Amino acid sequence: MVLSATACMLIASMVLGGCNKKPEQEEETSALTVDVKVAKHKELVIAETYVGTASAQQEVTVYPTASGEVLQVNVKSGDAVTEGQQLFKLDDESARLNLKNAQAGLASQQAQVDQTLGGQTALNQQKEQQGIDSAERSADTYARSAKEAEQNIARGERAVENAAQDRDEAKDKYETAKSLLSDWEDLQDDVDAFDGKTLSAANAMTVGSYDGTNPTASDLDDVADIVSDARDAGLDPSSISESGVDSLKLALRSQNRAVDSAKDALQDYRRSEKKAEDAEANADAELDNAVANQELTDGQMLEEQRKALQAGLASTAVGVEQAQYALDQYTTKSPITGVVESVSIDPHDTVGPSTAAMIITNKDSMKIDFSVTETVRDNLSVGQKVKVIKDDKKYKGTITEVGEMLDSATGMFKIQAVVNGGDGLLNGTTVTVKVDSYRDDSGIVIPYDAVYYSNGEPYIYVVEDGKAVRRDVETGMFDEKHIVIASGLDAGEQVITSWSADLRDGAKVQVAGEESDSSDGDKSEEIKETEKEAGSQSDEEADDSDGNTEKAGD
Asked: 40 near 538, Cβ under 8 Å?
């Protein structure tokens, strides 16, 4: 349609002169509907990812303790072995012959001693020896009792350690359940849709499908995070309740009692050891008396002869022990409990003490080594939690070492973390390490998209008396979703988060969900709830470290 000249002039007049509208008419212009977030103080946490290398904390290279031909290899790569288990055996025929010769020599020398000390003197010695043997048996009996008491003490100490470990695990579960229950109760307070629901029931909900309420996807994600954290801690989600936490508290008390019982038992073992040691000392004294009586009976000369013969006999017996020890060196056993990583020998190979035969690792805990910049290093500490990712599988780790020296090759600092129970993590494999690198709790956190820039200077719009008011601000750390406002904004103010070409300083605005004809400034319950949910979502998004970017901004 073609406009007439008169119409064009009329339109131009309206554009340039506003049709001479009165101020009262301007107020009747329709307001711009905007979305808002209520400003709140929050901590912004930014996580970064790094490339790390996994390795077993305990790794042993097994070497033969003798030289010779390999007769048999009893394990292969990937086998689980226990400490003391036979790994491989060398040809020990020569060592066996040496042991037999040593045993034969000892038997022959014993016969010579018996002949020399024969006759009537031998009969007298026999009587005295009976007393010595009886005293030796008594001493041996009490020595065994003392040894058994010592073993009982070792078992008691392990029992105390195990009970303490069980108690610590029960404490961790109780503290974790109590913390997650607090998070769940806070979420129930903030989201009406969850009121009166159990955590499991809330986890089964979907957006906007219950009683006319509208739990958001973010709300449901928070529920899922609590459920996931509970399962990661070995907890059933149903235990994230007051009764569940009380049950865990009772379990913790039970473990505390178990620790006390184990300590009492250990104290009894120690008293038993003291009694056995006293009895052993008395038996040793009786043996000394019996030997002294024998010396008086036999006479000084016979005693000197007997000592000389017994010394030679003892020396020969040591030779037998040495031959037995040499024979044992041809069989190699595992020094630790773990998994065989590699085997470098085969039957009929000729090996020696310098031959690296096998590598065995204990993977109950895995080391994770990665490097960070100096700025990030200054924000890390021993005991800080990290997340290790390998092939879409996640592991929880703890930083154990923070490097003090700069690596000249990389210009970075080395960090070491430990993952307990790292099934699936192989020696030397590359992993991804996610760690909270930056934190800022100095200001107010708002959505990143709510900040505008003019000549490089940041500003935002807030709602005041139904109008958009431009506010110059100072910004801090940010990620792809959030930004810290260091100054220029107070907690509780409504920040405009939606964009519009008509948004400007002084523009009349209507907050989405509010009644436009409300003259007294009061908000409906629906609007208050909207603001409450908006504030809750802002809090939850700020706490969601998985949503943070991988690089901090200044």
From this structure: yes
Side chain identity at residue 515, one-letter code? E
Q: Which tokens belong to 36?
A: 């808002």
d(C-alpha 315, C-alpha 318), whole Å = 5
Phi and psi at residue 89, to the nearest 5°: -135, 140
Of 35, 34, 31, nearest to 533 (Cα)?
35
Structure tokens at 87: 């790994």
Residue 548's CB is within 10 A of a number of other CB atoms, namely 23
CB atoms near residue 520 (< 10 Å): 4
pLDDT tens, position by position, for the chain (554 residues)?
333 333 333 333 333 333 344 444 444 568 999 999 999 888 787 878 898 988 886 778 999 999 999 999 999 988 989 899 999 999 999 999 999 999 999 899 888 777 777 665 666 667 777 878 888 888 888 888 888 888 899 988 999 999 999 999 999 988 999 899 898 988 888 887 888 888 988 888 887 655 566 788 888 898 989 999 999 989 988 889 888 899 898 999 999 999 999 999 989 989 988 888 888 898 888 888 877 776 666 566 567 777 888 888 898 899 999 999 999 999 999 998 888 989 999 999 999 999 999 998 876 778 999 999 988 888 898 998 898 988 888 888 999 999 888 888 888 899 999 888 766 677 778 989 888 877 777 789 999 999 999 999 999 999 999 999 999 999 988 888 899 999 999 999 999 999 988 899 999 999 988 765 444 444 434 334 434 444 444 444 444 444 443 333 33
| Contact present, 210 and 189 (Cβ < 8 Å) | no
Q: How many CB atoms neighbour CB 363 within 10 A?
A: 23
Q: Which of 41, 22, 93 is nearest to 440 (CA)?
A: 41
3-state secondary structure 147-163: HHHHHHHHHHHHHHHHH
Indicate yes or no: pTM above 0.70: no
d(Cα 390, Cα 12) in Å, to the nearest integer? 67
Question: Containing H/E element for 251?
Answer: helix 242-298
